[in-house]
Amino acid sequence: MGVDGSYPYLLALWLLPLAGAIVCWAFGPQLKRAAGFIGSAVIGISFILTLLSWGAGTQSTGLATGGLGAHQSLGSWLPGFNFGLLLDPLSLLWTCIITGVGFLIHVYSIGYMEGDNAFARFFAYLNFFVFAMLTLVLSDNFIGLLVGWGLVGLASYFLIGFWFFKPSAVAAARKAFVINVAGDVGIMMAIFIIVNAVHSIGFGDAFTFAVGGHFSDATLFVICLCLFIGAAAKSAQIPLHTWLPDAMEGPTPVSALIHAATMVTAGVYLVARCAPLWSAPHNGNAQVLVATIGGLTALVGAILGTGQWDIKRILAYSTMSQIGYMIMGVGVGAYEGGVAHFFTHAFFKAQLFLGSGIIIHALANEQDVRRMGGLMKKLPFAFVAMTTGVIAISGIPFIGSGFFSKDLVIYGALEHGKPWLYALGIVTAGITAYYMCRMLFITFLGAYRGEIDPSDLGIRHPELAGTPHAADAHAHAEHHAGPNWFMTVPVALLILPTILIGWLMFGGENSPWAHFFAHQFPTLSPPLPIPPIGEGMTGLITFALVLAGIGIAYWRYGTAGAQANAVERLRVESVKMPGFLTHAFYFDAALDLLFVRTSNLLGTLFSRFIDPHVIDGAVREAAFSATWLGGLVRSFQTGLLRAYALFLVLGVACFVIYYAVFIGGPH
Amino acid sequence: MDLSAVPIGNYIALSSVIFFIGVTGVLTRRNPLIMLMSIELMFNAANLLFMAFARMWLHNAGHIFAFLVITVAAAEAAIGLAIVVAVFRSAKHVDVDDVALMKG
Q: Which of A164, A244, A396, A631 is deepest in the core (most CB within 10 A)?
């Protein structure tokens, strides 16, 4: 895979963030505020180098297999264990988002994290994350991918637990890390199986092997299953998604960069990268599994999004739901569609998170939407930013980038013969529009509710629900006047792509998107049958449901009447929230029961029974039997000389009898 | 009188009797001196057999072993009497049943 050669830009854009991380980490106390500029600059330079590598990344020898993109060798460890970097259209796309959107988020962080005690540490972690993510997407082999995979998990752990003096943040970080490591183990298992069969860790070798049909069907399915366990853990697919909402404990730029735009889409990258495995003949079950999990995640995330009050948790569930779409897209085989949704999602979700960051920053770390309201006049810029994000994620035709990419996914499901996922996708689109508009209306319309007693709004434990981070080292007093330039400019720059980037995918076969990926993904030898419902019709149905969602949200939260008695409405809704929404479908409880409780039970069994009675017991029994045997032998040692003599005589007698009776006399 | 006319069975019988007298002495008496004497009896029973069989087979090995036994018996008597003296010095008596210091 890839045209071999020497690509200094590729090496530089990969290693620069690592250098930035080391500098920010080692010289943090000396650099102080300059760490932010250095951290942002290295990512900016990486982005420029990525653009300069565009030609190398998209070059193609025109052959059916291999010869796409740039391949830089790094070295060999053992025969078959060759390490290198690969920049082909797929990794180029990811690299652009990681460095491009990453750069904007770095700049935003300079404003957002201003005054934090650990300003330099934050940028060291962010740069380290970018390096890890680039390692993940640029590796040309499974082991490099796994290294990057583990390192982004580590960076995520560092950044969720960035405010380590908050117990909730530490708990969330630990949870995210543990679930992610469970996924890492899945990928490791897949690598073991692949190396055992192929004797190589390279993507190209494994894919050639799979395309040639050398894997048995069962082996291929197990490989795909193991890979998908990793993808599901990283990309927050049910039932391994529970860490993502908790991960919102981290600073908002972290939520934007890691837990929305880039890291959580690594699972999508993995499935898209391993497309030849999934699309290999007789591997339909793996595709159905992945696509179904993706579709269900999209639906579950959207439903849970309707019942949240924390603005970042609403966005977290929407992230989960949107990644569900992407996984569904790459799962059914519509790789271009799934990747397209990643691309647009990176922009609009970064936009939404950064917009919510402006609100949170302005309201002294208030995150509960019930205590917001009427912010349209207070924070007009945030309103514009959030509205564009909502338009994009809801998929308003032509002015929301999400429309085009989501359409590719939904229609792709129908094209690839998965009508139930098609229906699921359309319904989810309607729910998405509803909960995003709900958030928008509650936050920006009506009157400001920050001065109202939290219990009147139905907030039972204000110190838990609202998370006013009283203990934060985050100084916010001087920011109440409004956002500063470091925060507004990146958000402003994101507005245009949030609205327009979807046009890249317009035009079917002739779109720039299709051209970009022309040689990337496996082509189906018999072309797919034309589905009974056309693409335009699909867009119309989706749009009708989206309009219905927006309408219901407007009717419930947007009308003048609803705004007038908003306080009472919100209180009633909080109190009457159904249990499955407040408990997030009991996933946490189920996982707790399934893994934590069983582990505890097993531990108790071992500590109470197996260890004291079997293991210690064996040792004790050995000691006891030695004592008993010693006692037995000791009883012969009477100390009486005549007793010893008697034993001697008896012994001799025994010999004599033996010889006399059994051996007999001389022959 | 020709000694070779005495059958070997008689020697064995006499030797056995002497030996068991020795054994009985060792097992029943509590005075170490008597016990040493009894052991001496057993040695001599063995010696008598050695002599008898040497005579019977006309072979000198029996004589050699008899000398060996006499040597061992002398050494044994020396050590045994030394122990008896040592025990008597510390315990002021020589009853073997009362000197059960090695009881486990």
A: A244
The C-alpha atoms of residue A139 and residue A145 are separated, in whole angstroms, by 6
- Give A599 to chain B, closest Cα distance, Å: 51
In whole numbers, what is the pLDDT of chain A averaged over residues? 85
Evaluate whether A482 touches A362 at the Cβ level (below 8 Å): yes
Element (H, E) at A71: strand A70-78
Q: What is the pLDDT of residues A523-552, one digit of tens each?
A: 776 667 777 787 888 888 888 888 999 999
CA pair distance A414, A530, nearest whole angstrom: 9
The single-letter DSSP state of residue A248 is: G
Closest-approach residue (CA) in chain B for A644:
B27
Task: Check: CB of residue A260 under 8 Å from CB of residue A319.
Answer: yes
Residue to mutate among B26, B39, B57, with most A CBs inside 10 A, is B26
Half-sphere exposure of A118 (CA within 13 A, CB side): 16
Over residues A348-364, the mean pLDDT reads: 88
Query: For residue A40, is pLDDT > 60?
Result: yes
Helix (H) / strand (E) element for A87: namely strand A81-87
Do the chains contact at B100 and A639, CB–CB below 8 Å? yes
pLDDT band at A77 (very low <50, low <70, confident <90, very high): confident
CA distance, residue A606 to nearest chain B CA (Å): 41
DSSP-derived letter for residue A586 is G
Peptide bond into A239 cis (omega under 30): yes
* pTM score over 0.80: no
CB A260 within 8 A of CB A355: no
**Chain A residues close to B27, C-beta within 8 Å:** 642, 645-646, 649
Q: Do B99 and A637 touch (CB under 8 A)?
A: no
Do A639 and B30 make contact, defined as CB atoms within 8 angstroms? no
> pLDDT tens digits, residue range A374-388?
888 888 888 888 899
pLDDT tens sequence across A599-621: 999 999 999 988 888 888 899 99
Name every residue in B having a CB less than 8 A away from some CB of A.
Answer: 23, 26-28, 30, 32, 35, 96-97, 99-104
Q: What is the residue whose two structure tokens read 């030898």?
A: A525
Q: Encode pLDDT of A180-194 as tens digits.
A: 998 999 999 999 999
Q: Inform me whether the pLDDT recorded for A426 exceeds 50.
A: yes
**Nearest Cβ partner for A641 among B23, B96, B104:** B96
Q: Does the beta carbon of A642 lie under 8 angstroms from any beta carbon of chain B?
A: yes
**Closest residue in A to B102 (Cα–Cα):** A639
